[in-house]
Write a structure and sequence with these properties.
CATH topology: Pnp Oxidase, Chain A
InterPro entries: Flavin_Rdtase-like_dom, Split_barrel_FMN-bd
Domain Flavin reductase like: 27-180
Organism: Bradyrhizobium erythrophlei
Pfam families: Flavin_Reduct
Helix content: 10-25%
Number of domains: 1
Largest sheet: 7 strands, antiparallel
Distance between the termini: 24 Å
CATH superfamily: Electron Transport, Fmn-binding Protein, Chain A
GO molecular function, one term: oxidoreductase activity, acting on the CH-NH group of donors, NAD or NADP as acceptor
Length: 210
């Protein structure tokens, strides 16, 4: 790379529009892990939905979180019960994961729509996806409404939870190490339906200088 050679840059201020066919924001911040979140409301209705704004935020305690761009069933359920489960979305489960993104009545279970097995949690009263190789049972820590630099509230809520129980398919563990790519996780890219599949041959290692 030669920084002395000027690049032909596309510049824009988001508040004024991006000037492209598709908003590049999601495509630039990619790939993003999928927050495949199962939850239950106080009346026992079960929900399962994918969120593209998802990640891990803390080691001790282990905290994960997802952001919903509106007040959706998942957030409402978690606020009511204080519990949720994250499930790893893989290439083998891609179609089922996509099916759970459908807008259906609150009483309709996405588990049934997608033909997935709802396995009861051990420490939370929320089921995990039985077909998923990894699931995290979580207890709610915070729900934060996001805001802009001007302090104006956004129609987006960040839900954070402490991981209190972990389920891992032992087939994903080799010599005591979880093999990230072995499960072939899928991750979100840009536009409305772009994804990547993580494969073992695409991985490489760099040892930190310290």
């Amino acid at each position: 790379m030669d920084a002395s050679t000027p690049k032909d840059l596309h510049f824009y201020e988001p508040k004024n529009g991006h000037g492209l066919k598709h908003d590049p924001f999601n495509a630039v911040i990619a790939p993003r892990p999928i927050g495949w979140i199962s939850s239950r409301d106080a009346r026992g209705n079960i929900n399962l939905a994918p969120y593209s704004f998802f990640n891990g935020f803390c080691y001790t305690p282990p905290i994960i979180g997802f952001s919903s761009t509106s007040w959706k069933d998942s957030v409402a359920n978690i606020q009511e019960t204080g519990e949720f489960v994250w499930n790893l979305a893989t290439m083998d489960l891609a179609k089922q994961m996509n099916a759970t993104a459908a807008h259906v009545d609150h009483e309709v279970s996405e588990f049934k729509i997608a033909g997935l097995t709802a396995v009861p949690g051990k420490l939370v009263n929320v089921p995990r996806v039985g077909e998923s190789p990894v699931s995290f049972e979580c207890k709610l820590t915070q729900i934060i409404q996001l805001q802009g630099a001007d302090g104006k509230k956004a129609q987006a809520w960040l839900t954070l939870g402490e991981v209190v129980a972990v389920h891992i398919d032992k087939a994903m563990i080799k010599d005591g190490v979880y093999q990230t790519a072995l499960a072939r996780p899928i991750v979100r890219a840009g536009r409305r339906g772009d994804y990547f599949e993580i494969r073992p041959e695409a991985m490489f290692e760099m040892v930190r200088p310290d």
